[in-house]
């Protein structure tokens, strides 16, 4: 009896061992297949089971077991990417805030340059004119020669300072920095809104980076090498945004009624776009050209008058003319730098750039085929109206009057057309 029990136990043990060896590869394969970290090919499982004389392993819950893991991994990757983009955007926001403060401080400094240099030049010119007049009255002698030489030195110094001032135009430099500071603050607020209301992506980071670089190019800080030409041959509106909005023209007759856009709103925006191009931008470009011509004449006359006064102060019987030229130079310098003609030119140029920016914003939205990729139509209409200082009803009236006037071929009707902006 004992021998029989021992034989049965031995048979059960060998039988279980044999079955374990047969099942073990299948269990291992199933574990590997269900693991979320390993992705074994299906062919390996089939070959492994075939060699052990088993049926092909057909997991019934492969997709249900693997899809959640894959989705979890994708969500983790997206979270990591979003976190990295958010960190980059926070870094850029700090740089933008620093840029705004930097332009503000440098703008105040250059405004001080304009006032201090103008006061110094006018003081030199008036003192030189007084000395030249006194020398002409008293006649010839050692004291008179000293007056003439002193007047000549003052006129020469004033001429040198005026050449530098007319080259760099401190009042225009100060206006550039004021505009840059305002635009950097505006960009800073846009970044804050993006961080608060949207899921930050790499596209947001790229877009903001391009805007920062475009602003740096439009309003450079250094004077040597990178300074904008203060007397350009062709007057063009200021550009401080990246030109990378290229969309294909939507199909004719296509009705867009999504994302707040419809056919009437598109027609309205085209009417506003026409007014901006015909009236506002063209008017401020024309004013910029007029102010630039005036500034060129004043920039030439100032050093010319002080130079003639310097020569006349040392020549005999020309002291009275030196005093006259000195007085004329004082008047011209006060008109140019005291009146900040360079600043007025930059203000008009930036105003033309503002309208050009609005035009490009409208065009980029109208040229986008898919309405979902546009800015929300109702929000965009409200923004355009407020930027132009109008209500929504006034903006629609402007668009309708623009459409009516554009259908007329007479120049008189277009000249009588109102401007789009009520702010400038």
TrEMBL record:
InterPro entries, per database record: Chloroplast_duf
Q: Among its keywords, does the record have GTP-binding?
A: no
Low complexity bias locations: 403-413
Q: Where is this region: Disordered?
A: 403-424
Q: Which residues cross the membrane?
A: 116-137, 143-164
Key words, A-Z:
Membrane, Transmembrane, Transmembrane helix
Per the UniProt record, one Pfam family is: Chloroplast_duf
Protein name, UniProt field: F-box protein
Q: Which organism is it from?
A: Carya illinoinensis (Pecan)
Task: Show the taxonomic lineage.
Answer: Eukaryota, Viridiplantae, Streptophyta, Embryophyta, Tracheophyta
